Amino acid sequence: MSSRDDRAKEALRWIAPAGRSIDAVNAIVAAPLLERQRWSWRTWWIAFAVSLALTGAMAISIAWLLIEGIGIFGNNTTVVWGFPIANYVWWIGIGNAGTLISAMLLLLRQHWRASINRFAEAMTLFAAAIAGIFPILHLGRPLYFYWLAPYPNTMALWPQWRSALIWDFWAISSYILFSLLFWYIGLVPDLATLRDRAKGTMARTLFGIFALGWRGSARHWHTLHIYHMTMACLGVPLVVSLHSVVGLDFAASLMPGWAETIFPPYFVVGAMYSGFTMVIVLAAAVRWGLRMQALITIEHFEVMAKMLLAASTIMTLSYCTEWFTAWYGGEGAERRLVVYAFTGDYRVLYWLMLVFNCVIAQAFWFPAARRSIAAVVTIGILINVGMWLERMTIVLNTLSHGYAVSMWRTYAPTLWDFLLLFGSLGFFALLFLIFCRALPVVSMHETRRLLSAEAQP
Amino acid sequence: MSALLVAEFHEAGALTTAARAATSAGLPLADAFSPFPIEGMAELLGETSTRLRIWMFVGGIAVAALAYATEVWSAVYNYPIDSGGRPEHSWPAFLLFPFAVGIFGAALTGFIGLLVKCGLPRLHHPLFEINGFERVTQDRFMLALHAPPADADKRSAVDWLKQAGADNVWELEW
Amino acid sequence: MTARPPIAPADAGRFDIDRRRALTLLAGGMALALSSCGPPREEIVPYVSMPEGMTPGLPLTFATAVAPFGYAQGVLATSHEGRPTRLDGNPRHPSSLGAIDIFAQAEIMSLYSPDRAQAVRHGDDIAAWSAFEGALQAQLEQEKLRRGAGLRIVTGRITSPTLIRQLQALADVFPAARWLRFEPIDDDAPRAGAVAAFGEPLVTLPHLDRAKVVLTLDADPLGPGPQQLRNAAAFAKVRQSRLTPDDFLRLYAVESMWRLTGANADERLALAPQLMRNVALRVAQALGASVDAGDLPDRARRFADAVAKDLAGNKGRAIVLAGDTQPPEVHALCHWINAQLAAPVDHLPPVDANDKSHAQSLQELADDLGAGRVETLIIIDSNPAYAAPGALKLRELIGKAPFSAHLGLTDNETAQRCQWRLPMSHALEAWSDLRAVDGTASIVQPLIRPLYDTRSAHHVIGLLHGDLGADPYALVRETWQARATGDFESQWRRWLHDGVIADSAAAPVTPPQPHLPNVAPAQGTPPLTLVLAPDPSLWDGRFADNAWLQECPRPLTHEVWGNSLKIAPQDAAIHGLRDGDVVKLAHDGVTVAAPVRVQDGQPAGVVAATLGLGRNAAGAIGNGVGFDVYPLRGPAAGWHIEGVTIEATDQRHAPPTTQHHFRLDAEDKDILRTLAIDDLPRGTASSQDRGESLPSLLPRQNEDGYQWAMVIDTSVCIGCNACIIACQSENNVSVVGPEEVEAGRIMHWLRVDTYFLHEKDEPPGFQPVPCMHCEHAPCEPVCPVAASVHDGEGLNAQVYNRCVGTRFCQSNCPYKVRRFNWFAYSHDQAYANLGADTVTAQYNPDVTVRGRGVMEKCTYCVQRISRARREAEKTDTPIPDGGVVTACQSACPTRAISFGDLNRKDSSVNALRHEPHHYAMLGHLGTRPRTTYLARLNNPNPAAQDDGA
How far is B61 from chain C (nearest CA, A)? Predict the structure, then answer.
């Protein structure tokens, strides 16, 4: 069977010799969960402490926000949006990659996804959840965010369905729940494995409960496979629509620099871009921290670097399109805005953004760069900074320099803006660290399947 | 109340060959258990249905339709509001909400459908009694046949399985 | 968060410390405040309906007068359940003509100001009036012995006939006593000039509406002051688009600093004050005077010649006005020129009864205090300790009087140097009478019993007469009984009802032909000169405790909560200064630290600053805001100080501004369009720009019933800010304080935009920007909770209690007219002591007070629309054109704002929307604004310009 043959080849390519047996796979993946004593967790504890501290900072700034009001942020009458919106777009971007990897690569039969999709999906969940917090926190009256949902109320009012924020609200909610299902259903067979490997009763019971009594029946495998594939087919349009809607938050307006038809696709690519970089960073961490060298190989980094290179090129193209349409459209405000972006108050941010997003990824034309984990990770982090800057400049340039010349104002973030941003990073790290010690970070059954092909005659 | 013969193999390949042989030998297959999906096994077991997809489609459409209906009813009939001179029934703007929740609706229907079809969650199952069954979620493979009622046939079936490469064969009431 | 500017009061945090401090301080008065609300005992006569017809919820309106500058400004006071809430102009009053300036409007805030003096104080201890009366009588016994030789009464400008009567009557009791009158914003130079020209201190009233050419030499007829409203109205009459270019006024301004007149002039020349006499002399030459005109820079000479030609060519309709900075002889020269031009000006006998000059009065006071000749010092509503020229050292001297008392609204710098601090009743709390500049008298009727245990000036002067129970009501009636003809009571009722006393205005006198004064031309270039001017928002500083005025953006600069030293770009380059650099401004050993502002259009070699800031006894609001230039003034006051030095320091802080300044690029020009009156027939502001002809996919909305719209005529907007304060008092708009303004957060629903153009150093004009109430409002479809919605009458409404504060509406508003409550500005996070209970008493009960986290914006005064609708429905008739008057519209002295129903074919807005120079701001965006503009018309004279002739 041809598909089996190429799967066999794939297995050889994506799994290092040390991991080329079913036992090995089970052992490697289960070790951090079931045989913790096998290595020291010092680094883990340090990371945990740091992220816990940052999470505390986030909690404090949220409390202060609710007490004092959103005046504690740096926004002003002209630049009414600031960090929270940029953070939100950035996080939701990262939240896209997991599902893209799982769903799109699954449909494209990219077998290398087997080693990374599990923690990528976890990352998606955490990132999307954190992203969801920001639009609520940036509200003037955060406690009333639920007014965006249609429910019979004393005001006899309904949401205003034409608002992109409503689309957002629902796209995110649907997306988070969808990803949760997708992630969990893929997790069930592995939970069963852990149930059956676990020594302690505690672990057995917990894994057992969440494994739902999975027993590897061929009939179940069959149904699971159908469900998984269908979910993948649904996931791709959902994830694309999600970030298109985020793009529409800006594009469905009439402000210069926002009202651009290119925004939805270019936001989707941007999301994939920053998401993949985050996956790379986490992959490196997992590989090293949980000793997954056998399952997460240099090959993975190389192929993801190629993805980054492609994305970077598309982003560059999108920026050029923006500039071109601004010039070609002939609207004074649009043209002025482009000039302002390059020469105005936020020019440093803008230039840095261009360097990080368009230039440095070009290093991946060279195999050496693609195959050096250090290089890939460093570039990945810079690109993520660049993507955050992109969202920042999108928000700030247009709002600071819109049509009403007399109301032009610049924006200066406050301590609280930064606390909330870095706090959210810490919270994300915290969630991920806990995930690493509670659940298998690599999908065992998919890797086993990959191996099986090569094992069979 | 039926009896099962459960045979353990340590090779996915052995399992599939045994299963094929059994079907050709007229021994009725009950089920197969493996740490990963084995291609063709489901077909041997006669699992071809794709009704799950239809459920998901229906569920998705239903939720989307409900969402769109809510929009139209609330924005056009229940509480029409002039919002920037836009039409009360701004259908293009009304599409994204149904789309998003529709997809989630499909996913949820599918999930429930999956559980129903597989009869999960079922935290305990007679199979778990089999000593060593825990390894089917790791590296072992098991084939379950409907045991013939007559003891003579049952014994021959067990021998047949042993020849087919089964390491162990259990009989189990179910 | 932005750092608090060093000038801000040390205790002016956003949090409530000050308020608490203030509350504890004022606790005593508070009880009184709450108990004593209610109408005064005496009968007061409402303007529109009888008191017995008072129905709860229906406001009553009373005609009365306030005196921001000592002169009367007729107002209509609105009172809800006996609680005055706002002031509007009185159409019958010549100094109001239905309009009202920012100062008179802010009086309502002063009434409720938490910083008001609320109890008699002896030193720092709270005392009783009886205690003061006792002490005073004892003191007066001694004074009687020496015939009042030690008694000095210091007042501001007094125009109240009753008070004047009382003061003059004192002469019988204390022949040797002296009444000294001191107004920081004096009129000494014009008076002296008039004396020189006519032999008597006549007051000149120009009739701009009868003029074709006007030249001002540092005069500011359109600027703040007692004549602003009258002049502005006249100015508007001759700047109408319907006029032929020949009747359209051409305004020339020669200025040593930016004044409103210059900002509205067709041709403006920036010139040092000392050189202006040469311009006047050139004009005199052109009119046949054989005088030496001295020398002028090229640009100035070209300008002067063009003006002279224009003036000479328009005899009978040309006026020349000299301003404060000009010496008496230049005023006299201008009188002579006006006489030659047969200028349309009136000359009136002065209302001000005290014929001594302000400078003399002060000098005398200082000398007497210095020589210990003052035994009893009574200061009534005047603040010499702060506002007197520093050279007189009055701050120290006042303490030398053995017995001193100060009667005032606040315990100001002077009060704090007196033994007795007496709380004065506000103009809305006590009976009095006042005269306007032209002599028109009004009865001041109180709308509310004194909030605290306060007395009026009449009462205190009465005490000096030995009359413990002096009753202002009786005194005022007494005054006018003497002048009544026939039945007094009916006349009295009529006067109260009208707010003016019929034909009480002084008749213009025809003065003798002024002789040509001998004016020596200025030679050479003067040394660095400091020009002073009253502050456009705080006047002489008496309003420093008024939060509305502190946060009222100065015209052109948009500075609030502070002032700056205006310096020309050339001078700034010389000293290496940029905006916000603090310099040491020194003269005669007195040094003041001032932040500079590099200002285009400021003459080189001249720096300018406004008086009235840097107070330190103005309470939680006004303390330590800005820098004080009074100390630099010489003994003779004077409006420009020669030979000042500026020295850069390494400090920096600029006063916060509500707008930053950007030069308009070519593509933005049509935001505020200008059009020469000669080009009007070719109408360049085309109707295309209304955006109505733009294609739209959107369905036509149902447009039956009323469809409200506003048209703003930018050619008559003089930038006086009256609309801003009117909106603030009508709509309970919060004051946010300097830190928040610094952070870029402002609350004014209506802003007055000014731009500078790339080519010229002059602003194209002023542009009031309320909400545009777009028919296709971009703010509405983006609101997720339908808090921003459109109503059936074309209003873009904001539903406060539905708003969750996403601010998507503001980010999608091309005009940026929405305002967000970042903090609870109106509640527990109010600035300084503005959370005090008394302040909330000012709120207009018809308008919601917005809470934290919601968006707010201009509503077209929807509460006034619905009131008009209720009235109309009673009689079952449609609302007539002009039946709804928005707050901004009602205050505007030039009637630049029109409001009405588009569905009325005969409505004024419909007519204006068909003017050739009508346009919609950013109309090409297809938002179809309901607020639209008329392009600014000007009447330039190429001959007067740089490239000219």
Answer: 25
